[in-house]
Amino acid sequence: MLRRPEGTPIRSPSGLDGLLVGRRLGAATVFVLVVLAATSLRGQAPELRLAFIGDAGSGSASQRAVRDQMLRVPLAFTFMLGDNIYERGSREDFGPRFDQVYKPLMDKGTIFHSALGNHDVSFCGARTTMIDRLPADADAYRWDILRCDVKAQLTHPSFGYLGGQRYYSVRTDSAAAPLAEVFILDSNTLRTSQSKLSPLQTDIPQVEWLERVLSASNARWKMVIMHHPIHSPSVPLKYFLFIPVQEGHARELLLEQQLGSILKKHGVDVVLAGHNHFYARMVPQDGIRYFVSGGGGRSAYEFKDQPGYVAAGGGFYHFLYVRLTRDRFEYYAIDRDGRTRDAGWWAKGDAADHLLPAGARPPG
Question: Which residues are registered as beta bridge partners of 181?
């Protein structure tokens, strides 16, 4: 936002001459600032439509049903929130569980970008970082006993990993100050309950990269995506004859400790994650909006109600549809049947969201 120069008059002994000089300088300053602003905004998209979808790569009928709803709305970008290829990121499944499913969207011009989920690297180990800095590409991982196909994922064009990197950023237009920039992380090597690293290890280069690129970004909207959620409602353990049969996913407290201050310091607007197979919109935390969108096709489930922390959500298949302008971040959680389950918007500086009527549809 431009600040209007104060234009305090420069007064000379003659009084009036100084006042006129001050006004001329003030007008000149305003003109320069307007030109600079116009230059930085040149090429900025006036509006942008995006989708966020997690835990989708099952090849199921539900995945295709969600895809069908995505085809009904205009989309420039789709961001995959991890677990893009169940069960273990095998290259044999790229076709039936991703390429063939999303080809109709790609044929319409939608650009895909992805984050790695735990299932995408489930048969991969991580290189030691006790001495070496963990690489930003597939060399961060190694085979354990079974084949690790992470390099095939990072270099497969449809997934949209830029430069074969595990973490990267996407500017949504060519302006010097783009409408949005999306920062994609690999949370498998960050501090989570499922980290590929030991408690004594840390992916320092990724954290340093995130701070550096967030600091350098002049995007109107800054969005961070990853697989594991910093904020999320919890899921209770499920038992069969006193034997746990489903793990109880919850928020990643260690991840918040690792990244929370960086996100707040650099003005991140929203953080989106998957991993938990439901939709959840959290009450804003330190001015940041947090969403969980893990209902892209794998089995969905419910979570424990947490009033005052969880604003909305449920265990249903869906994708999160976002409409961006300079003044407004608008969102719609659309289920596999095309119903809007949650919708609202906020402007910069809003402490709370403005909810849209039940069933509201995004503008065409």
Answer: 171, 222
What are the DSSP E strand ranges found in 188-335?
A: 221-225, 238-240, 243-246, 270-273, 279-282, 289-293, 310-314, 318-324, 329-335
- Tell me the backbone φ, ψ of residue 239, rounded to 5 degrees: -125, 150
Domain positions in the chain are: 1-41, 48-355
Backbone angles phi, psi at 225, to 5 degrees: -125, 150
CA distances from 31 to 16, 23, 224 (A): 23, 12, 35
**Alpha helix positions (H), the chain:** 16-41, 61-70, 94, 100-107, 150-154, 204-216, 253-265
What is the tens place of the pLDDT at every residue in 109-122? 999 999 999 999 99
Tokens, residue 107: 């044929």
**Fold classified for 48-355:** Purple Acid Phosphatase; chain A, domain 2 (3.60.21)
Name which of 93, 79, 156, 85 is nearest 121 in CA terms.
85
3-state secondary structure (DSSP) of residue 290:
strand
Q: Residue 166 and residue 6: Cα distance in Å, rounded?
A: 46
pLDDT tens digits for 155-211? Answer: 999 999 999 999 999 999 999 999 999 999 999 999 999 999 988 889 999 999 999
